[in-house]
Amino acid sequence: MVQQQSYDVVAILEMWWDDSHSWSVALDGYKLLRRDRKGRRCGGVALYIREALDAMGSETNDDEVECLWVRIKGKANKANILLGVRYTPPNQEEEVDNLFYKKLENVSGSPALVLVRDFNLADICWECNTAEKRQSRKVSECVEGNFLSQLVREPTRRGTI
Length: 161
Fold this sequence. Notes:
By secondary structure, this protein is an alpha+beta fold. It has one domain (about 1-120): Endonuclease/exonuclease/phosphatase (Deoxyribonuclease I, Chain A). It is built from three helices and nine strands; from the N terminus they run αββββββαβββα. The chain has helices at about 1-5, 95-105, 135-145; strands at about 10-15, 30-35, 45-50, 55-60, 65-70, 80-85, 110-120, 125, 130. The protein has a four-stranded mixed beta sheet with strand order 4-5-6-7, with no helix packed on it. A three-stranded antiparallel beta sheet has the order 1-3-2, with no helix packed on it. A hairpin with a 7-residue loop joins strand 4 (about 55-60) and strand 5. The longest helix is centred in the middle third of the chain and has 14 residues, at about 95-105. The radius of gyration is 16 Å and the shape is globular. The model has no long low-confidence stretch (mean pLDDT about 80).
């Protein structure tokens, strides 16, 4: 499907991959960047990026934050695109979220910033910009404070966006 649709970038969240898999995850014409969950099953994030794009991954030292950052060089006079992929497990510690918010604040000045994220926070109402829980309100404030927009408008799982 990826190659048929000719996507430039494909993000995978909660991929469940690790070094124990003997099967190939390569796609012709794409380079794979991934960050496996350390010390636990499940989780992890990955990006397939078309080989024709000039992309460079950015390392992060926070083992607890399941996040991957990639800078895609803009063509001609276009700005570089900074792409972040983050998986947030259910019941994530607020301290781990805070580490991510600090990183996001550092990169939010990028002229073209795209963040793909599984929030796992069903109580956020993106249309009303409200949330019941404090942790969810912090996420909503972070999105708004960094001038990001929620583009998903339909439920993706169990009635949540």
